[in-house]
Design brief:
By secondary structure, the protein is an alpha+beta fold. It is about 30% helix and about 20% strand. InterPro entries: DIOX_N (IPR026992), IPNS-like_FE2OG_OXY (IPR044861), IPNS-like_sf (IPR027443), Iron_ascorbate_oxido_reductase (IPR050231), Oxoglu/Fe-dep_dioxygenase_dom (IPR005123).
């Protein structure tokens, strides 16, 4: 049975090389085998996370016409409010039963101080993970962080409202998809619904574990590493019990490389097989994926 590992990040900052390497090995194994992990001792305070969840609930409680004043307009800025069913993460299915607020670094400043602090804290944690990835792949420690230094990341507040009416055939809270960037940080409440697909095609639950952050690898990291690290399909299903009457909230931080970074197969990842993908610019890949998920709906 595949289990998503829980990894304690504390030892990564150890001055003892062997202790640090043990954590790097755990992270490498998780990225290779399942593409998901839970991180303990992430360095982001529980109080700050709670503040962002509180802000998120306040925003989604606003009348629809108020939220629509901040409507998401295009994939180039990729910021603003995304209404229910507006996005189809699985383009073959009906629109997702969720609403979202996409925030970049500039937009965070106009919202709330806690959002700015949280964005910065997520960036710091992402950089630590990217350093661990680099060491796991026999690269200089700053290999990935220097290619992410423009902070082209997206913070996404998500709300999955209670279901008042039956869903359409094939409709879920978030369709089956892989993430587009390098890595994703996910903070979720205890309502549940997140499922992860194993390499054998089985779907397993990824419930909230207190005081952890869910980390998963995205498409661009999979391309960079020639599938040494896998970008795993995941989805959010509709509960089949009373939780269907409750809101689910989560916060995702999508870590993206600088737009002009060429994602080309790493030399250390060509031992098992020759490059699977041609080189692509990070910004071009992100645009193509956003265009597919928003379509013309």
């Amino acid at each position: 049975m595949v289990i998503i590992p829980v990894i304690d990040l504390t030892a990564f900052s150890s001055s003892n090389a062997a202790t640090q390497q043990a954590v790097v090995k755990q992270i490498c194994q998780a990225c290779h085998e399942i593409g998901f992990m839970y991180l303990q001792n992430s360095g982001i305070s529980k109080n700050l996370i709670n503040q962002v969840f509180t802000h998120s609930k306040s925003f989604f409680n606003l009348p629809l016409e108020v939220k629509q004043k901040q409507a998401w307009s295009d994939e180039f800025s990729n910021t603003g409010y995304v209404g229910i069913e507006r996005e189809r993460l699985n383009p073959n299915n009906p629109g997702d039963l969720k609403e979202a607020l996409n925030v970049n670094k500039q937009a965070a400043v106009g919202i709330d101080a806690s959002i700015v602090t949280f964005y910065d804290s997520c960036t710091e944690l992402a950089n630590t993970i990217l350093q661990a990835y680099a060491l796991a792949l026999e690269l200089p420690e700053n290999y990935f962080t220097t290619r992410h230094n423009q902070q082209n990341h997206t913070l996404r507040l998500l709300h999955y409202p209670p279901l008042q009416t039956p869903s359409k055939p094939g409709q879920v809270r978030a369709g089956e998809h892989s993430d587009y960037g390098s890595i994703t940080l996910l903070f979720q409440d205890d309502i549940g619904g997140l499922e992860v697909q194993t390499t054998s095609g089985e779907w397993i639950a990824a419930p909230a574990i207190p005081d952890t952050v869910v980390i998963n690898t995205g498409d661009l990291m999979q391309r960079w590493t020639n599938h040494v690290f896998c970008s795993t399909k995941h989805r959010v299903m509709i509960p089949n019990d009373d939780r269907v009457k409750q809101s689910r909230y989560s916060i995702a931080f999508f870590c993206h490389p600088n737009d002009d970074t060429e994602i080309t197969c790493l030399e250390s990842c060509q031992k098992e097989q020759s490059p699977i993908y041609p080189p692509i610019l990070a910004g071009e890949y992100l645009l193509s994926r956003l265009q597919a998920s928003y379509g013309n709906s």
